[in-house]
Amino acid sequence: MNTRPDAAVRKQQREARREAERAARAALPIDAAQLDSLVEFVVSRGEVEGCDHSSRLAQLWANDHGVDWARLPACLEEFGGYCDCEIAMNCNSDQVFR
Q: Distance (Å, rounded) from C-alpha 98 to C-alpha 96?
Protein backbone atom coordinates (compact mmCIF):
# COMPACT_ATOMS: atom_id res chain seq x y z
CA MET A 1 0.00 0.00 0.00
CA ASN A 2 1.42 3.37 -1.00
CA THR A 3 0.78 6.04 1.67
CA ARG A 4 2.64 8.80 -0.17
CA PRO A 5 0.30 11.71 -0.95
CA ASP A 6 -0.44 12.12 -4.62
CA ALA A 7 0.65 15.19 -6.57
CA ALA A 8 -2.67 17.00 -6.11
CA VAL A 9 -2.57 16.59 -2.33
CA ARG A 10 1.07 17.75 -2.15
CA LYS A 11 0.23 20.79 -4.28
CA GLN A 12 -2.70 21.60 -2.00
CA GLN A 13 -0.47 21.29 1.08
CA ARG A 14 2.20 23.57 -0.45
CA GLU A 15 -0.40 26.20 -1.32
CA ALA A 16 -1.90 26.05 2.18
CA ARG A 17 1.56 26.59 3.65
CA ARG A 18 2.21 29.54 1.32
CA GLU A 19 -1.12 31.10 2.26
CA ALA A 20 -0.36 30.69 5.98
CA GLU A 21 3.00 32.43 5.45
CA ARG A 22 1.34 35.26 3.49
CA ALA A 23 -1.17 35.78 6.28
CA ALA A 24 1.57 35.74 8.93
CA ARG A 25 3.65 38.20 6.91
CA ALA A 26 0.66 40.55 6.59
CA ALA A 27 -0.02 40.31 10.33
CA LEU A 28 3.61 40.82 11.35
CA PRO A 29 3.69 44.04 13.39
CA ILE A 30 7.28 44.86 12.34
CA ASP A 31 9.00 45.59 9.05
CA ALA A 32 12.14 44.00 7.58
CA ALA A 33 14.54 46.45 9.27
CA GLN A 34 12.93 45.84 12.65
CA LEU A 35 13.07 42.08 12.11
CA ASP A 36 16.78 42.38 11.33
CA SER A 37 17.22 44.37 14.55
CA LEU A 38 15.27 41.78 16.54
CA VAL A 39 17.30 38.89 15.15
CA GLU A 40 20.58 40.74 15.75
CA PHE A 41 19.53 41.44 19.35
CA VAL A 42 18.51 37.83 19.98
CA VAL A 43 21.73 36.51 18.45
CA SER A 44 24.02 38.83 20.42
CA ARG A 45 22.25 38.33 23.74
CA GLY A 46 21.72 34.63 23.09
CA GLU A 47 25.44 34.07 22.57
CA VAL A 48 26.04 35.37 26.10
CA GLU A 49 22.92 34.14 27.91
CA GLY A 50 22.01 31.06 25.91
CA CYS A 51 18.53 29.99 24.94
CA ASP A 52 16.14 28.90 27.65
CA HIS A 53 13.66 27.75 24.97
CA SER A 54 11.41 30.75 25.50
CA SER A 55 11.07 33.99 23.58
CA ARG A 56 12.29 36.02 26.55
CA LEU A 57 14.92 37.96 24.60
CA ALA A 58 12.53 38.69 21.73
CA GLN A 59 10.01 40.01 24.24
CA LEU A 60 12.67 42.26 25.79
CA TRP A 61 13.46 43.62 22.33
CA ALA A 62 9.76 44.20 21.58
CA ASN A 63 9.20 46.03 24.84
CA ASP A 64 12.29 48.21 24.28
CA HIS A 65 11.12 49.09 20.75
CA GLY A 66 7.43 49.71 21.46
CA VAL A 67 6.29 46.68 19.48
CA ASP A 68 3.01 44.99 20.41
CA TRP A 69 4.25 41.73 21.93
CA ALA A 70 0.76 40.20 21.94
CA ARG A 71 0.81 39.99 18.11
CA LEU A 72 4.47 39.18 17.48
CA PRO A 73 4.97 35.60 18.79
CA ALA A 74 2.31 33.96 16.63
CA CYS A 75 3.76 35.60 13.52
CA LEU A 76 7.31 34.55 14.37
CA GLU A 77 6.13 31.01 15.08
CA GLU A 78 4.65 30.78 11.59
CA PHE A 79 8.21 31.15 10.28
CA GLY A 80 9.70 28.68 12.78
CA GLY A 81 10.56 31.14 15.56
CA TYR A 82 9.16 29.31 18.60
CA CYS A 83 11.97 30.42 20.93
CA ASP A 84 14.90 32.82 20.84
CA CYS A 85 17.36 30.39 19.21
CA GLU A 86 14.79 29.46 16.56
CA ILE A 87 14.05 33.13 15.91
CA ALA A 88 17.77 33.63 15.33
CA MET A 89 17.97 30.65 12.96
CA ASN A 90 14.65 30.81 11.09
CA CYS A 91 13.37 34.39 11.02
CA ASN A 92 15.78 36.34 8.87
CA SER A 93 14.13 39.10 6.90
CA ASP A 94 15.27 37.73 3.52
CA GLN A 95 13.17 34.62 4.07
CA VAL A 96 10.24 36.21 5.88
CA PHE A 97 9.77 39.11 3.46
CA ARG A 98 10.47 37.28 0.19
A: 6
The pTM of the full predicted model, rounded to 2 decimals, is 0.80
| Residue 97 neighbours by CB under 8 Å, 6+ apart | 25, 32, 35
pLDDT tens digit sequence for 34-91: 999 999 999 999 999 999 999 999 999 999 999 999 999 999 998 999 999 999 999 9
Question: Where do runs of H (alpha helix) occur along the chain?
Answer: 7-27, 32-49, 56-64, 72-78, 84-90, 93-96
For residue 62, is it within any domain?
yes
Range of the domain at 82: 7-96
